[in-house]
Amino acid sequence: MKYLSTPKPKGYGLVAGFDVNSDRINVAVLNGDRNMVAVKTFWYSETVSHGFPREKAKRVRLNALTKALMWCRRIGVDYVVFEDLTRIKYKRFTSNPYANRKIAKFPKKQILAHGVIKALKLGFIIVLVNPKGTTNSVTHEQIMREKGLDRHMASAYIIAYRGLKIIKNHRK
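Above: the chain sequence. Below: its structure as C-alpha cells.
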C-alpha cells in the first residue's frame, strides 16, 4: 500500500455507504450531521443476462466499483462503508428464475475484496458493517418514505449511517 496508493487530499469528513447488488452499485454520501450530500447509482445490468461472458462481466463489475470509488474521491469522501458480505452464509433462491440467475451470478466476496483494496489504494478509511436489516426492516421502510428514496438507495443510506455511528463511537 505504501508504494501503490495515491496521496489523498484532505476531505470533508464525508461518509459514503455502498449498497452492492448483482446489477448495480448504489452510493449514498452523508455528512457528520446525517444529511445526504450526494447519491448516485452505477449500473452494470448487462452482466446478469443470458450468454454474457463471465470474464467480461467481472471486468464490467469491478470497473463500475472503481468508478464509484473515484467519484467518491472527487467529491471529498473520507470514509467508505461496505456491507460485510462475508457474513451472508447462503443464497436464498426464489421461485422467480430471473432473480435466481441474478443471485447466482453475484460474486460477493470478489466485489468486497476488490472494493476494500481499491479504497485503501485511494486513501480511504474502510468500515465494514453488518448487513442485517439493511434491506428489509421497519427502519428501511421509514427511510424510504421520509427521504423519498428507492429500496437500494435507502439501503446505501442505512449502510452509511451505520458506518457514521461506528466512526463516532470509535473517536470517543
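The chain has a mean pLDDT of 88.
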